[in-house]
Amino acid sequence: MGRPSAARVYDYLLGGGHNFAADRELAERFARALPGSRDIARLNRAFLRRGVLFLIENGIRQFLDIGSGIPTVGNVHEIAQAVDPTIRVVYVDNEPVAVAHSQLLLEHNDRAAAVEADLVHPDGVLDHPAVHGLLDLDQPLGLLMVGVFHFVPPERAPLELLARYRERLAPGSYLALSHFTADTRPAEMAAMVEVMSNSRDPIHPRTRAEIAELFTGFELVNPGVVPTADWHPVAPADDVAGPEREQIYAGVGRKTATG
To answer: Whole-prediction pTM value?
Structure first.
């Protein structure tokens, strides 16, 4: 509880109540280093909603949300099950407090679960009993990595890591991913990276080209890898006018039969 985590910092920036004093203090430092942080968080959450609805429209009825944080208002099971109550969702996070909160919130939902596992261990995630209990990896699945892959350092070989997930997905599965970048405000992003460097979740921004490369083996859905606000916006609230709209790139890709 005394050590801040990205999951709870994100919850605070979104206006949630599942965070502690250490998280709030770090979040305020984060916001000073990177002005517009609350808008950045809101735009990222709006992309999640639009991405989930897009996947449902394209036949997906099961979701694996890795790096999910705390599934409070507006998270995947609420969005998806409002459309189809039979949709199944498994949340994965490596932060014990976030997972404990999630399990409490989901205890009466037999089509959603939260497990503690780490993104950088694909087999540990995909072979977890709770994942197998709710999801069928032989059928198309929506793999969500929204606002989490920037926590993967270069030494973890990000492309190879994502390839291991892709290889386990059935053809017709989708990847929805968003990721911090320093392309537009390098000085501010460098300050934010410094703020997060002593937390349990250091951040590693990547360029648009590097983020697009993460979709290797997936067929990118139009408009490709773009700022979150530019990915299938549907309402004025999905955008802002300031530079913060371009701090996170997002995209959705579909695994083909040969992917």
So the answer is: 0.93
